[in-house]
Amino acid sequence: MNTQPSCMVWLPADHRLLGDHGHQMPFLMLGDKYARAVKVGAQAQPVMFPLADVASIDSLLSLVDGVMLTGSPSNVHPSHYNEDVADPSLPLDAVRDELTFALVKACLQQGVPLLGVCRGFQEINVSMGGSLHQRVQEVSGLMDHREPKGAPIEEQYAPSHAILPVPGSVLADWADGASEVRVNSLHGQGINRLAPGLEAMAHAPDGVVEAFAVKGATAFAFAVQFHPEWRCWEYPFYTAIFEAFGEACRARRRERLTAAPADLARV
Fold it and tell me: Band of the pLDDT at 261, cuts 50, 70, 90?
């Protein structure tokens, strides 16, 4: 009988107000598709730490084997890259910003596997000194990367355009060496200035960065603008991303459990 604890991946929560107008209450939210991709694709146990704050990051990271920064309806607050809010109707999540920006730095410092998706991709870029286009569709020469509003969910998450992996990159390996691979596209914001510590691994045909790696990272540290979590088991490219993340998390778990007896001996 296997008595080893499950490999665990921390997924930070979104902070939202739900309910009828005038009767809204705060909720901590996690999308099923992200948790399910971790469970099925990475073969790890997704976990949440409700009300986690910056001061608790180190102690919570000691309990997990990886971190996944998910997508979200909310956007990174543009004040983090010295811009005003372009569209006040779009949701923001300042509490998540505060936690995840510090969490990115802690993961990189401690060698904790880190995967960013959509908002998580943008969080990593901005937290490391990059900036975003707040309205990609309004930038001259760039495509409209948003999903077809009102379409069935399966159509919204269906592959809609190609990305071009950088030859020799890990992403190219995940794409099985293909010169291009089709992905879904559900974002209104995207990278403007790539942070100095990041290296692009794929671009859309219009040049928008679709994936990057953290330069010099000691563990898995990658992010994508598209949504590989969507039925990741149905798309070999998406599957490869989560399998690689899961392998990195299991390597972290082995290191963590090996170090645990020595740590206890010092108590």
Answer: low
